[in-house]
Amino acid sequence: MNADDFGFGTQIRKSPYFDATVRWGAKGFSVYNHMYIPRDFGDPEQNFWTLVNDAILCDVAVERQVEITGPDAARFVQMLTPRDLSKMAVGQCKYVLITNAEGCILNDPILLRLAENHFWISLADSDILLWAQGVAVHSGLDVTIGEPDVSPLQLQGPRSGEIMQALFGDSILDLKYYWHRELKLDGIPLLVSRTGWSSELGYEIYLRDSTHGDALWERIMAVGMAFGLKPGHTSSIRRIEGGMLSYHADADITTNPFELGLDRLVDLDIEADFIGKAALRRIRDEGVTRLQVGVIIEGAPLKGPNTMFWPIKSDGAQIGKVTSAVYSPRLERNIALAMVEVGHAQIGTEVEVMTPSGPARATVVERPFYDPKKKLAAA
To answer: What CA dihedral angle connects 256, 261, 267 and 269, to 10 degrees?
Structure first.
């Protein structure tokens, strides 16, 4: 295959790494934030095992950055999220939620603070650039909001630290979990963070000049192959094992943080009047009617991730839906994230999942399914 074999039209953007991923074996793409993202390098199970045993390099340039600068940048960013940012240092990253006036989630990005009044919002799959620009119009705050020429790669897996050491030297080893620093590699301007969407040890390498995309990809692969590095794609198996959200699947504009058990990202006692504060107080006080849970689904191994929401029933009545499901070869179980009515959310509750091949017995379990303390990623 060559790059011309993939075509959704010019309205879908290609990343600086697009040609390199095709050259290295990408066989299929999806669309995320109006861009191509590689979703198939041949065998999802092998991709998973390479990720958990060695390392994979993923084109995640679809994680577009919303850049916020100006004298009021810090005040403005706090308006967007219920997480308290008052102690966020320059060089730090934070997982945050962006909520609307109803207290529902518009995005669950990583926030990076590059300077006192310079932030990037590293996005999940929704148009927060437009939201932020709209919020700014009548905010009375002095901010500039745009999309910079920044394109991340993810280097993830237990050997990613060795690869980073070979690329950048020993000093990279003291980069702490959820911190970042600005670096250069062969003169290529980068920002490197200890983050990623894998629940494994990993790094995100933010390219700050798209003309170097091909050179950066090839340099990392050339160094990494000695450590078992393979080109790959974000692993549905590993992210579901880790209980990591996929926006539009496990959460959307109708989902609030309390339904997901993300109370830790909501600070209702801070002085800042962030968007959704009143609604989130009301939701907290009244309680929720549904909760996200983990589910083990009995039966033969699923052949791939679900492409539809599967109804969940109890005594013949629908009480929820499976949002993300996959077979984990490590756990030898069909595992799923689901949203169910509160009365059916207790651990051990038995339910019925309506899969495409018929009804299947299932049990509500703890999530994440693997490494719940994130010891691997934070090591």
So the answer is: 90
Contact 256, 104 (CB under 8 A): yes
Q: How many domains does the chain have?
A: 3
Residue-level pLDDT at 2 = 64
Question: What would the pLDDT profile of 177-199 be if each residue is shown by its tens digit?
Answer: 999 999 999 999 999 999 999 99
Classify each residue of 157-178 as buried b or exposed e, where b means 16 or more C-beta atoms within 10 Å of its C-beta: bbbbbbbbeebbeeebeebeeb
**Which amino acid is present at 375?**
K
Same domain, 60 and 176: yes
- Residue 128 and residue 154 in one domain: no
Rounded distance between C-alpha atoms, residue 135 and residue 254, angstroms: 19
Collect all residues with Cβ–Cβ distance below 8 Å to 377 and sequence separation of at least 6. Answer: 177, 196, 198, 199, 200, 201, 202, 371
Instruction: Put the strands of the sheet holding 65-69 in their side by side order.
Output: 93-95, 110-115, 118-122, 65-69, 144-146
* pTM, two decimal places: 0.96
Q: Is 348 left (phi over 0), alpha (psi -120 to 50) or beta?
A: left
Confidence of residue 4 (pLDDT cuts 50, 70, 90): low
Write down the residue that tokens 């799923």 correspond to.
Answer: 336
Domain identity same for 78 and 184: no
